[in-house]
Amino acid sequence: MNALPNELRTPPLPVIAFIGCPELHKDVGSYFNHTIRPPFFSVGLAEATESLLVRLFGVKRQPKPFSTPDGILKADWFAKQRQRRAAVAVAFVPRSHVDGDPSSWMHMLAGLRAVRAAASVKGAALLLVVVQEGQLSELPPDRLAGLRSNLGLEHRQLCVISRQCFDPALSPEARKQLQGAQLGPLGQLVTEGAAAYYSSSAARLRQKQVDITAALGSSPPEVNAATAFKLAVLAEFRQDWLAAVSAYQAAAAALQGVPLGKPTVSCQRHAEVAAVAEVAHFKAMMLLLHQQRFAEALQQLRGHLAAFGPLPEGLPLAAAAAHYGWLSRQYQVAAEMVATSRMDEAVLQTHKDARPCHLLMCAAQLAISRKAAAEQLAAARGGGPTPFDASAVRKGRYLGQLEMRRPAAAAAAGAGGSDMTDAEFCLFLEAEERRVNHSQLVLDLLLQAQAAHLRQASKPVAAAPGQPAAAAAAAAAAAAAAGKTSHAAADRLQARLAWQIAEQQVDTHNLTAARKLLMQAVHTYRT
Questions:
Q1: Which are the contacts of 130, defined by CB distance < 8 A and separation ≥ 6?
Q2: β-strand pairing of 88-94 with 125-132
Q3: 263 preceded by a cis bond (ω within 30 of 0)
Q4: Average pLDDT for consecutive 10-residue bins of the chain (527 residues)?
Q5: What range(s) does the Trafficking protein particle complex subunit domain occupy (predicted)?
Q6: Hey, is 44 helix, strand or coil?
């Protein structure tokens, strides 16, 4: 799981923007994160410049004719939603600016209007916070009315707080009481605004899909998959875990309908579909495990492997090697997820194919297949280098896609811009396989499987959830009676792992370790 980016391994948090009075951002954000659940991810701006507002809230683009997109999911979409796309703008203005002369008043209004316009592009809420130096006092009625009318604020969207909330001279109890009275209502407004933003964003996505269906007669599977994935992320922002799991599974189902190319399978398209499917599956399984819906999590794993595990016919050897590596990672990550979950031992005894040891052994076998494919590729080159400059490759605009950095002269001559041909893509995959220490990779997986097997063998037989005590005792007695058989099977598995590890130790020229392991394996069968 450590190979996956952090934004996939942790649930997304609502994003809020603090604008103005930067000295307050840390204290207000700390209060919110200690008192509000879920906490927020805050972005602070000292000044509301146009470029920063565009970065936070996006820009309004002219609608384009509907068509099948060039890819499935934009590569930066997830990270952008988590880190840059604010759901709520909290604008802080000093009381002195509100009470100021007409020139400073108009300057303040111009800046707030810019924030309001930027936030409204994607439907983010705007909250205005007037900051006073001393105790709270009433704002001038004409200025109060001017702020609301110019910014289109409701009565509760304008708050007043005092810097005394953060005065270190106050006792902790007094400071806590002030913060609760002044920042508590503001935090509630931020929570409501964020929930409304993510709900309205989901509604816009659904409507866009309806419009595409009406324009094209049917919604392309790429659009269906991307829409479902985005709806799942927005559900996570709202902590609607049931809806998130359902949407991630809908995204995976839609991916199965994405065409991989005719008459032959496109290596690039296959890699793109696999990359998006990996993310959707990981998120769905992680959420199911966290909800302790273990049977559904295992069903999700089996469905993912059945749908995307088989090697498509006609893939070149380099693409096949990459697919074996991808599939091996699916088993390895699943093993880590199961091992770190709270899954009952009785569940694993019922579903033996979900045991970490079994999953890691499958990962190792796939890594061996990948190693064999890589060796065939190297043999076909006669041991020479791959005729391809991998340094010219970069990540594409869509998740799972790659692009080429071409010389300006070639691009001007119409050499395809930055798009890669399937032949170039396969050469890149071949070059990447050359960089992998396959023997060490297989060895690491086998050692992990061995460690998982030893942990599994040391655990006592557990009763199934809800199993009566008498039935549990009978099961324990049966297990004891079959102890010799189970121990023999465990020993044979340990010997088989030792034999496979020894083979890889030979490949890595560690002959001493290989001999020791082979002697252990032979001893098992002799006894």
A1: 93, 94, 95, 98, 139, 158, 159, 160, 161
A2: parallel
A3: yes
A4: 72 94 94 90 90 88 82 92 94 92 91 94 94 87 92 93 90 91 94 96 94 91 96 96 97 95 90 97 96 94 96 93 97 94 85 91 95 93 82 91 76 56 93 92 90 76 51 49 56 71 76 74 63
A5: 270-454
A6: strand
What is the H or E stretch that residue 395 is in? strand 393-395
Both structure tokens of 494:
């340990």
Which residues are CB-contacts of 517 (< 8 A; sequence separation ≥ 6)? 498, 499, 501, 502, 505
Residue type, 419: D
Q: 3-state DSSP call for residue 521?
A: helix
How far CA 118 is from CA of 25, 60, 152, 413, in Å, comes to: 20, 9, 14, 40
| C-beta neighbour count of 445 within 10 angstroms | 26
Q: In this structure, what DSSP letter does residue 462 have?
A: P
DSSP 8-state symbol, 247: H
φ, ψ of residue 139 to 5 degrees: the values are -80, 150
At 398, is the secondary structure helix, strand, or coil?
Answer: strand
Count the residues in the chain: 527
**In 3-state terms, what secondary structure has residue 261?**
coil
The answer to whether the peptide bond before residue 140 is cis (omega within 30 degrees of 0) is no
CA nearest 88: which of 47, 61, 118, 114? 118
Q: How far is CA 117 from CA 54, 121, 202, in A?
A: 10, 7, 21
Q: Are the C-beta atoms of residues 127 and 90 closer than 8 Å to each other?
A: yes
DSSP reduced 3-state for 140:
coil
Read off the tokens for 46.
Answer: 């000292």
**With 0-12 CB in 10 A as exposed, 13-18 as middle and 19+ as buried, what is 386?**
buried
- CA-nearest of 97, 174, 164, 166 to 136 is 164
Indicate the Cα dihedral angle 21, 26, 32, 34, nearest 10°: -160
